[in-house]
Amino acid sequence: MEWRRLRADQLRDMARADAIVILPVASLEQHGPHLPVEVDSMLGETVAVRAARKIAERGQQAVVLPVLWTGLSEHHMSFGGTVTLDFPAFYGVVEGVCRSVLRHGFKRIVLLNAHGGNENALRTITDEMTPKLGVPIVQFTYWYAAAAAIAKILETQGALMHACEAETSMMLAVRPELVAMDRVGMAKANSTPDVADVVGGGVYRWRTIAARSSSGVIGNPEAATAEKGERLFEAIATALADKLCNAELWELP
Amino acid sequence: MEWRRLRADQLRDMARADAIVILPVASLEQHGPHLPVEVDSMLGETVAVRAARKIAERGQQAVVLPVLWTGLSEHHMSFGGTVTLDFPAFYGVVEGVCRSVLRHGFKRIVLLNAHGGNENALRTITDEMTPKLGVPIVQFTYWYAAAAAIAKILETQGALMHACEAETSMMLAVRPELVAMDRVGMAKANSTPDVADVVGGGVYRWRTIAARSSSGVIGNPEAATAEKGERLFEAIATALADKLCNAELWELP
Amino acid sequence: MEWRRLRADQLRDMARADAIVILPVASLEQHGPHLPVEVDSMLGETVAVRAARKIAERGQQAVVLPVLWTGLSEHHMSFGGTVTLDFPAFYGVVEGVCRSVLRHGFKRIVLLNAHGGNENALRTITDEMTPKLGVPIVQFTYWYAAAAAIAKILETQGALMHACEAETSMMLAVRPELVAMDRVGMAKANSTPDVADVVGGGVYRWRTIAARSSSGVIGNPEAATAEKGERLFEAIATALADKLCNAELWELP
Amino acid sequence: MEWRRLRADQLRDMARADAIVILPVASLEQHGPHLPVEVDSMLGETVAVRAARKIAERGQQAVVLPVLWTGLSEHHMSFGGTVTLDFPAFYGVVEGVCRSVLRHGFKRIVLLNAHGGNENALRTITDEMTPKLGVPIVQFTYWYAAAAAIAKILETQGALMHACEAETSMMLAVRPELVAMDRVGMAKANSTPDVADVVGGGVYRWRTIAARSSSGVIGNPEAATAEKGERLFEAIATALADKLCNAELWELP
Amino acid sequence: MEWRRLRADQLRDMARADAIVILPVASLEQHGPHLPVEVDSMLGETVAVRAARKIAERGQQAVVLPVLWTGLSEHHMSFGGTVTLDFPAFYGVVEGVCRSVLRHGFKRIVLLNAHGGNENALRTITDEMTPKLGVPIVQFTYWYAAAAAIAKILETQGALMHACEAETSMMLAVRPELVAMDRVGMAKANSTPDVADVVGGGVYRWRTIAARSSSGVIGNPEAATAEKGERLFEAIATALADKLCNAELWELP
Amino acid sequence: MEWRRLRADQLRDMARADAIVILPVASLEQHGPHLPVEVDSMLGETVAVRAARKIAERGQQAVVLPVLWTGLSEHHMSFGGTVTLDFPAFYGVVEGVCRSVLRHGFKRIVLLNAHGGNENALRTITDEMTPKLGVPIVQFTYWYAAAAAIAKILETQGALMHACEAETSMMLAVRPELVAMDRVGMAKANSTPDVADVVGGGVYRWRTIAARSSSGVIGNPEAATAEKGERLFEAIATALADKLCNAELWELP
User: Are residues A126 and A137 in contact, defined by beta-carbon separation less than 8 angstroms?
Assistant: First the structure.
């Protein structure tokens, strides 16, 4: 399931079996006073592997590359602990990975995004790469692709935000030793809505997180539980597998 | 109102008055059997100028640059008549224009998009440019920013599509001599939904238009009328002016 | 005649008929105290369309793309109102347009320049693109290509300069409402010759316009008349059509 | 110790304490018939973390970024399972990470290489980045920096090679479940020396691995044991910590 | 006089004395059946050094960098023996040299061109570099800057062409052993005028030399003599020194 | 032997004879108080030509391009007199030359390095270019390729350094008029070892020369003699010819 743990001969077999190749793309960036910087990378990789397992259970094959932890996080930089690329470097690394994969005979690629700051860039990369590479490239951010499933589980938020009820829950499920619930109070009630959301109607701006939240948190981590995290993983993986097993998704460009 | 028709001294005055600078970004691409390739450029520029007028009526100033007609239209290329850039060239020209504008003392920029193929790229450009330039850059595609207003006017579609009821109506309002309504039958009923829409959930793919519509039309141009077009322009310009006059939109990044 | 006003099917026909594709390349830059910044774009597009009409009268076909208004105008920036790209962005957009045109089957391209600051760059682009694209690319600046015709009409200048007798006359012919003849006195007699012209012999330097003229004008706009402008357009269009209809011009590279 | 497991506040403390930042740079590439493609990434990250621990034992601080698994592996591509970037993308990602680290106040960077194909590129990047960034950047490949220690432990090789006695031993120590010792016979005795080594004297060529070894192995994996692997880790980490704690190493450029 | 033959301390003195720095830019390209490929490099360097000597005789200082022999010669490639860069590489090397020179305190740069294929590119580079570097950069091609002097000496041509009366004469003056006058008959009378010259009026095209001359020669090498070559060098150097000693040439941009 | 002195027809013959093409790559950089900045270029070109002659004596053909004097010398810049490129420009020019050479039918390339600062970059370029170009590219720095021969001749150093016993001797052999032996005392005993050498074990850092030597010299120029220089040239050329005539060196990548 995990590309890195396979041998070259096993990966050649995977290519011959037309396995779906999933590249989780995430980040290392501040996650408030209570979470480690690896959150997006950890969640993205976990979601991808769980989805791949469900795909395998349905008789198709999927293989998951290691997470790309070098994302686009300029908006988090002022908090420290954050790593960011610029767009050309980010494009270069995503394109290099995809080209390598195709040269080995794979024909289906998923850019599974797990970090908000990457969303626009990955769509742009999909637009540029697809006609050049000539294969189906499927791109999505997991919390949008599984939004309905997530909304049903969360109690205090309508959607996954940042270092919030959802992300904190999922970290409690897989890395409880890295969640400082005793520090969660420092994140309380200090974020404001995005200016574009106020104005509405698809209006877009790039803002720093600091302009919206002094703690770096957006959402409500106090409502997090490990059990909720486990249910989120299960629901998200199922939603993703449902979509990725849909043959229509893989029509040629 | 139109940058190109002003003298340098008038534009220096505009900068001193902190005018909003609107850059319409569009394309030259096939618009089915009945419309000229200029549709997106014509509509984008018209929408921008009408919005600027409404902004002026409310006591603020706005100035509209000429439309950038060199957009991203690889997905339309197989139909002929289409011009496309790649992303680096597109970024280069948008960035060059914005940097010029800022050097003259303007401090507020709108990237008003009028072509679907530009949407992801303009968001990526906004993400890259804003922290480098340090000023508020507002980006939107006009039919998303004015979606509610548009939906109320259209009779056979829920939203603006391509060479459709909405675009054909607006062209009938401003360039009736270029609309070949006698050819509109060739566009009838031959598009299929986007594969990503079928799968849903924020899943994204780049597809050629040819994969979805043999005529190059998506939507229903037969329902178009000039009167509907005029109402669309009025409603869209009002919606955009409402948003752009909102002071909250212009907070520093 | 105008690419933007044609439908895709009409442009496919144009390609089959081996039409000459003319790309006017100009700028938005200060034009002294009396003219709008659109001068070069307006004149370049007008000249191109008029030349195309004369070509059609002679039984050949030509089609004119919209003017590229994003030129190279760093030397005008200190006056305000000016937009400039750097060379890589300028190259990217010109190359992207030319590549699009060739993909649709056209085989003859004219880069019709209407802005002094673009001249060297367009020659460099012609040098780089021609061997890569393998088709004849014809490049010229209209006032050099029609220099003899222009010289006969002007009364106080030997050649077209900047915001001068020639440009002001042509603007009076097509956009009289944008010419502030009451401000023309501010441009009087305040330019000095280019240092390279003083030294002579092909010596070249890049200078700001401000180093040569406090008003941003070079030449004598006071002698301008609309009638002279109309004669200039007629003479220039004829001169260009003469050249472009010469079959020798279109030999393979 | 591991950057990814720390919170932003902890990383801000690390920067204030002038911690050494170690970036392990490796690859995903074929490792013969018996090893997974993650070998270089696994070993590079393990070596880095163990060295950081030893540095901490000596009273200094070090923090280890996640391994960059996107290396330069064109020479392995024909075997499948391999991911490679080109140089500009590789440079972009390394530079992006280093620039982020410095913006948070860190002042000492180690590019700890764990993949032969990266060696030249990382030196070139060090040459380019150091004068631009103005801080000490220390670059090395771990098996050269610890060559003496490694040579003492190996029984059938003088140095670490590829999928060999050393790498297989270290994998047996940390990921025994991924080592297919029953397949090791397929790697037997089928590599030839590098042509440059035959000619000697610093002569360099780029060659595919396939030109030298049909199995993709260079060296002798049959002599591998987990115990040897553990001793290798210990010796390498000690050697690296010795060097990195040397204050002379950190003089300004 | 020659940068390469000076020590660092001597060049520091040169900078303090505000010496003019001359960079001869040329090429290695076919020069017909009778001349070596070094012609443009040899002549460019010789002309530069002789001009520098004359400048010194007039009490100013000039220093000549080694010739850049990596020019733009795609149009000569089909003849063999030719080296060409693309524009970005050519720009990179010219810019790198100029930036180095300025960092040492020099303030006046001459790009002395000795190869037709470089002319447009060097003007573009001058346009791009001057506003960025902020110092006077003087660019010219020596046979245009000294056209009048050259015309007086030549007997069968009006101007310097390629492997012609002028170039062959100058090579006879400085490298007679490399001129195969016995092969000069192979170059006889086989070139045709440039298509742009036929059409006239500043019309420009890029053409291969092979399209105009089967021998690779343009002009009349049979009329060449060493004595004429010596007179050409003397006249050209004098003309260049006259121009370069003109203080007006060195006004700030 | 020297590409620049040959005609195009002679170079076409060279290509047909499968001649080895040697590109000497060097620099213009400070060489202490007693040597001109051309040292690396002069020595690199001389070594290359002498090696080519020895190759010819053994019945093979070799041709030497002019030296690339635009190297990577940022570490010498503070002394003045030095020219440096950045890596992308350096790569561009090396790649442009190699591509030109291959287009003429040559199939064997040597990047003969004569400047320490180029070593890492040339290896990186070799890694990038070889798989793209598909021919054998041999890269080495001459003093490493001939290290044993050099060590036998030097009396006060173990290896060639900078402006040292070896380089000064070789300059005394070929350009005695440019060696200021009366200034050699200024270079005495003022360099310290490289910090990486102190730490050992393949540890690498980029340092300025100024950090190690106030005179810019590393090594002992006082021991230099012309006779020693001549012996060095002879020994180096022989060592290089030995290697380059080895057929094994030229196997396909």
Answer: yes
